[in-house]
Amino acid sequence: MEETISLQDLFKTLKKRLVLILVAVVLAVTAAGVISFLFLTPIYQASTQILVNQQKVEQSQFNAQDIQTNLQLINTYNVIIKSPAILSKVIKNLDLDTTPAALSGKLTVNSEQDSQVVSISVQDPEAFRAVDIANTTAIVFQEEIQKLMNVDNVNILSKAIPAENPAPIKPDPYLNMAIAAVIGLMLGVGIAFLLEYLDTTVKTEDDIEELLGLPILGLISPIPEVKAPSAIDALKQRRKER
């Protein structure tokens, strides 16, 4: 026998398990808030920008071919910036207790689309250290690129500046709690329908008809209980009748 579920049945199930769904949402949001505020380490970000030219500022004009050459160099520079040749000197200058590979994981090098500007972003649990690493990386790269490629075409466009009250870029507790609310809602609804599916108790006449495969011939209405009068009440009634 094919089983069909109407939209009314779905809403009935949700209404029946509403407390369970709300509990799942509250627990998920609470867990996400506690983990985000108390256990996750805040991460700060600092960025600096460098400008790639074909040569130093003595050349006052650039043609299209010069700019295209610079854009091709940027991909090479992006790799060199995160190489041990640069990062090992950054670690030495700042006396950092880390390795070039670990420091490379904190760096993000992006080139603006169709431009000669390269952004160096650093993420670190300490805001001041992120600023120092970003600025030092730009300075070391500007110095070392002259030795590595025998060119002098890198200028620092903007330095990372420490903020008075830096705000971490992650984690975002409120975003995590919003995501947890959605996950908790989905989990609560899933559990509600699972419990309803596993509940095989007979509750209505429709359940009996579906279970036995026989038509229902009649229904017995509930008969209210009638309380038998006590001996004293019966005696009072007889006196009234007299």
From TrEMBL:
Tyrosine-protein kinase G-rich domain boundaries: 142-194
TM region positions: 18-40, 174-195
Keyword Membrane: yes
Domain Polysaccharide chain length determinant N-terminal: 3-94
GO cellular component: plasma membrane
Membrane protein topology class: Multi-pass membrane protein
Signal peptide: none
Molecular function GO labels: protein tyrosine kinase activity
Swiss-Prot/TrEMBL keywords: Cell membrane, Membrane, Transmembrane, Transmembrane helix
Chief place where the protein resides: membrane
Pfam family, one: Wzz
Top-level taxonomic group: Bacteria
Compartments where found: Cell membrane
Family, per entry: Belongs to the CpsC/CapA family.
PANTHER family, alphabetized: FERRIC ENTEROBACTIN TRANSPORT PROTEIN FEPE (PTHR32309:SF13), TYROSINE-PROTEIN KINASE (PTHR32309)
Protein name, entry field: Capsular polysaccharide type 8 biosynthesis protein cap8A
Gene source species: Filibacter tadaridae
High-level lineage: Bacteria, Bacillati, Bacillota, Bacilli, Bacillales
Gene coding for it: cap8A
